[in-house]
Amino acid sequence: MSGPDKRCTEDEVVAELESGMTIGIGGWGSRRKPMSLIRAILRSDLRDLTIVAYGGPDIGLLCRSGQARKVITGFVSLDSIPLEANYGVARQNGTVEAEEWDEGMLLLGLTAAGWRVPFLPCRAGLGSDVPRLMSHLRTVRSPYPTNFDGAEEFEDLLAVPALELDVALVHQNLSDQSGNAAWMGEDPFMDDLFVRAAKKAYVSCERVVATDELASQVDVTRLRIARMDVTGVVVAPNGAHFTECQPDYGRDEEFQRRYAATAKSDEAWQEFRSEFLDLDEAGYQAKVKELQS
Amino acid sequence: MTTDLTRADICAVAIAEAFRGDGERLCNPIGNLPLIGGRLAVASFEPHMMLTDGYYTLMDPTGPDDVPPINLPEAERLASRTVAHWNPYREMFSLLFHGRRHVMMGATQVDRFGNQNIAAIGDWNKPRRQLLGFRGAPGNTINHTTSYWVPNHSPRVFVEAVDVVCGIGYDRAVELGPVASRFHEIRRVVSNLGVFDFEATDDAGVRVMRLASVHPGVSVDEVVEATGFELVIGDDVPETRLPTPEELEIISRLDPKGFRFQEVPAS
Q1: Looking at the DSSP assignment, which residues form a beta bridge with residue B240?
Q2: Hey, what CATH topology would domain A10-102+163-292 get?
Q3: Which of A24, A91, A262, B87 could form a disulfide with A165 if both were Cys (CB 3.0 to 4.6 A apart)?
Q4: Which residues from B are below 8 Å from A101, CB to CB?
């Protein structure tokens, strides 16, 4: 049977969110971020959010707006601009709490949450300052012996805690009206894992097609998000702007530079905010089109 | 020695040499000169290593001339790669947990034990300067061979103790014990001044950084002065080997626009 029509707007998604929630955001760095949903959060009075992401401007913006209380991440970068200055300022001023993990640990934490197990073991992180600084992280002793150098030993591994999310926000190239969705670039990133790690997941997408057209538009291996796991679908063409969304569009580098400059002063941020963020999504997209013409 | 031989070319060859003997595994340099050096190794003496395209696939060049130049515009990058394997980020983690990889990363700070920092300067809890975060450094160093590239050798980079341990060095590996650290290897640190390895131990028997060679035109004293800790220095420190004419040709083909000179200036 086909699924229910779950299409909704960015503002309708944000109306379902609450202050204090843990929100996972898909994409990677400045790539395929659900920016139209981030912009809707920026227009809202949500606060005290915990953000879990392979961080890019999503984390930077929510730190700049003061809405992120805490971030859990493997890195925060704009890719073509290696350091995310808004995140950097927030860290240096101590206005955001951070858990910085090894990138691979994040993958395991999301997978653990999706599988409903409390942790997954891994070697990544052992010996580094990750478990020393993030002092709630624990190790676990293997119940199975490791044969090493003629002796048997029971290895200690890092127990990566499940990253249970209240909400996941991801951006895909293609979806049907009920949330069967596909990415069309070369990397799914961890979007499907974010979706399964969350109580509720919202998929924004470049375009919606009928369910029976999905498999003719993409190879079946790209259909990684199933509607069972999706609460709402937002049709958001160019919704990942200014991050890239291959193969539909590349990163808007000029716009990203303009955004990055908002870390320099409160005036610069206020100016950017009133020009681009105090608008609804249609207004933002019109403004972007105007800049690009 | 040709008259236009540059320090950057010497660094490229020294980086390539870090991958010598690696055989059939992933050559994964990060950054401009590491990319040039790594690709040079694959285009010359380590042809069986696989290469990343910098994003989501592994490349298998059909021959030395098919090893693509670095930093190509996107369309050319896609057109010039011979794709052999799909390697999205989740797969890269799987690959590196498995261990058949040698990565060369940058280091904002590195210490005598090979601990590396790319996360933050100062107290991590409220850093003086926030950097990238830990990225993959903890997982890389505990799972497979890692080397580092430092284009600006100074006492601010080569420090007594790093502010944050991202990539783990030999003291941390010893603390973990022989089983947990059995895949750990810091192969080489290459800087604009010289090449460093860990073929020496301190009084406690822990591997520590040794000056393996100085680049032509650099004195041992210069290296000592630019290093914030006591290096192990042998009686007779050799010079880093010069590029062959064939290697120079490959380097200029891999980097026709001269990105390497942004890291290590020509004069």
Answers
A1: none
A2: Glutaconate Coenzyme A-transferase (3.40.1080)
A3: A24
A4: 134
